[in-house]
Amino acid sequence: MEVVSPINGCSGDTAGRVIICKAAVAWGPGEPLVIEQVRVDPPQKMEVRVKILFTSICHTDLSAWKGENESQRAYPRIFGHEAAGIVESVGEGVTEVAAGDHVIPLFNGECGTCRCCKNPKTNACEVMGVNPMKRTMTHDGKTRFTTADERRLPIFHFLNTSTFSEFTVLESACVVKIDSEAPMKKMTLLSCGLSTGVGAAWNTVNMEAGSTVAIFGLGVIGLAVAEGARARGASKIIGVDINPLKSVVGKQFGIIDFINPRDSDNPVHEIIIEKTNGGVDYSFECVGNGEILRTAFLSTHIGWGTTVMLGVHTSPKMLPLHPMELFSGRKVVASVFGGFKGRSDMPQFAKQCIEGVVKLDEFITHQLPFHNINDAFQLLIDGKSLRCVLQF
């Protein structure tokens, strides 16, 4: 098979050929990513090859890079799942997108034909839903990445996307076309963080104007929840975080009341109950910590309070609730990708973002060239960035 370097980008001269390009390869848990040349095979049946223009780093990438869940470890691997790019070529059977289309990748795909995809009550997909264990492509169980040296080692995929590469191959169910006029740098946010948080407020609980809200953990997802709540007309948005700087950041997204658990001996849920005359209508747990989940649950009003779990819980511990506590009328639900059906809902959500229904600029705190990806990881580890966008 002929091999080319992407000199002319997506002009069509690379279709059907192996592309050699730059990627950030993870060779082991916690090891610095290595920028090196990799081979990217052409897309096979129902696959799409995309030239990534911008990508960013999410806490999910961070935890996977650290190897926090041993069962998910697979190396070498290309991480990344927040991005925006242009379709370079498509495989057999792909009709939804074509070469030249502007797209964003979807870690939570939508095949469009399974029972879940046909059910308006869920954004799960039985075929292409989020699967941290998946490492290869569905068509033939092989990878589309190999090392560019004589070893030709297979490089594993990640979360249906693997966007830390100048070119990547995705299942067609895991890519969605967006308006070609949309600002691509900002559209990276829609691949995960912004959609997950805003959608939790809009889709998962369908928040009403005048609602009271408590958000535990003010990273991008927590702040996106706040932005979604602000856009829906919430009357009170309380932010909870141990980082005092988040009190300042949160104000940009409608968080006026801020609680640092380290500043008081009183339990956080009691403080929230006092501030809201009995508890909030909705609480959102964005950390992935069982004790915080319980606090979020206890912070909601009896009779109707709903807690939405957004954090990824890597601990083997079970839910910190007694079944009888649910008789109070409080509820606990979880949300993946904010309840958005990726291919069905993202074009309209992107349009709303472009029109200013929710903020985008404030989430991008840094921008670096792609080869500085390890610096971007450190910014996230140090709590100095919300989203650092990397440009190829």
UniProtKB/TrEMBL annotation:
Q: Name one GO cellular component term.
A: cytosol
Q: Which reaction does it catalyse?
A: a secondary alcohol + NAD(+) = a ketone + NADH + H(+); a primary alcohol + NAD(+) = an aldehyde + NADH + H(+)
Q: Which domain of life is it from?
A: Eukaryota
The keyword Electron transport is assigned to this record: no
The coenzyme or cofactor needed here is:
Zn(2+)
Which Pfam families does UniProt cross-reference here?
ADH_N (PF08240), ADH_zinc_N (PF00107)
Q: Does the keyword Metal-binding apply?
A: yes
The terms under GO molecular function for this entry are: alcohol dehydrogenase (NAD+) activity; S-(hydroxymethyl)glutathione dehydrogenase [NAD(P)+] activity; zinc ion binding
Alphabetical GO biological process terms: formaldehyde catabolic process
**Residues of the Alcohol dehydrogenase-like N-terminal domain:** 45-141
Query: Which keywords has UniProt assigned to this entry?
Result: Metal-binding, NAD, Oxidoreductase, Zinc
> Which InterPro entries would you find in this protein's record?
ADH-like_C, ADH-like_N, ADH_Zn_CS, GroES-like_sf, NAD(P)-bd_dom_sf
EC number per UniProt:
1.1.1.1
Alcohol dehydrogenase-like C-terminal domain location, by residue? 221-351
- Oligomeric and partner information: Homodimer.
Q: What family classification does the UniProt entry report for this protein?
A: Belongs to the zinc-containing alcohol dehydrogenase family. Class-III subfamily.
Q: Which PANTHER family match?
A: ALCOHOL DEHYDROGENASE (PTHR43880), ALCOHOL DEHYDROGENASE-LIKE 4 (PTHR43880:SF56)
**What is the designated name of this protein?**
alcohol dehydrogenase
Species in which this protein is naturally found: Cucurbita maxima (Pumpkin)
Gene name of this polypeptide: LOC111469055
